[in-house]
Design goal:
384 residues, eight-stranded antiparallel barrel, Porin
Length: 384
Amino acid sequence: MLFLCLIMHRYPVLRFVFICLLLPVFQLHAQDAPSLQGSGIEANFLAGKIIKHTVKFKAPIPPISTALDMNILWQTYGKKEWHQRRHFPLLGVGITYTDYGNNQVFGNSVGIYPNLQIPIIRGKKIEWTFRIGDGLAYVTRKNQVTAPVDTINNAIGSHLDDFAVFMMDLRYHLDDHWQLQLGGNFTHISNADYHQPNLGVNMAGGHIGLQYFPVTSRPQRKVKELPRLPNRWLLEMRAGISYKEARATGNPILPTYMGSLYVSRRWLGKNKYYFGADYAFHNDVLAFLETYCDNLNNKKNRSWDGAVFTGNEFMVGRVGIMTQIGAYYKQTYLKFDYIYEKLGGNLYLLKAEHGTVKELFISAMLLTHSTTAELAEFGLGVGI
């Protein structure tokens, strides 16, 4: 508790937010305590450092960056089949305030993100977990050529950005209400090149924190015999679109049209591995070539790329968390690394075991080259 009080003293704005988050919990507890079994709140103090992930990153690296993360928690207990298949994970909605350590260049950020905590090892007193989350963040400082000028910061090109969080926790259960934890974390903020320059800010460090559950952190579980899901094959197609700022006259925001064709196979009844091919036509590259490369032939042919890929989809009910790695067989005139990664998710509007169309989903994916984001893709897909 002393650690938590010190954090609240240092961050008065978050003290107010913390109280606002706690009030509904205690009000509901007073009115209907049984409904709060498994509901709780978490606070973590983070300390780390910005990672200079490319030589293009020109801004000075502060000696230390700090953050306060608060998370509203709900412990799954088996109401849905996927709770049991996933060994009863924790669901949360987090708010993170980050002080990067140099307000004149990086400013501060406030991010909000849904998250999932998966148990790796779970004992009676000791627990080891992994958390993944993604949402939006507002950053107070960005690259700007007009007043207030900030051209040193080439890491962030817009105030509103994607905010991704990865955390590993070693947790000790003091009792059914209080839990103490420490671990490591990694956060990423960028706008996926919607506005340039935008290298993104990656921060890595450690944290210490507390969880509190007013009723209990261990609600009674509903365990039952689950139906066996066959390891079926599907043919899947996805069409997507992305928008990027073009390095051309007027710096227009132009669409990139994307398509994917792949096959997937379900395994263990809760994952899918898949492999296939990607295609993307980049209008921002075409605009660049038309602006600066008048004598270059076949500009449209130099504005698309294609790749082959493989990946895994981690199924959580109607949500699929996707990790993908691919290699280009053709690149645009503005080449990147030959290897790319995608991280994102699918939200399933339809999941059926029978019929011609078995899956219908909307998707959101972040395409990166190593630790630098290139674009954010949003699309619609189908599985047959």
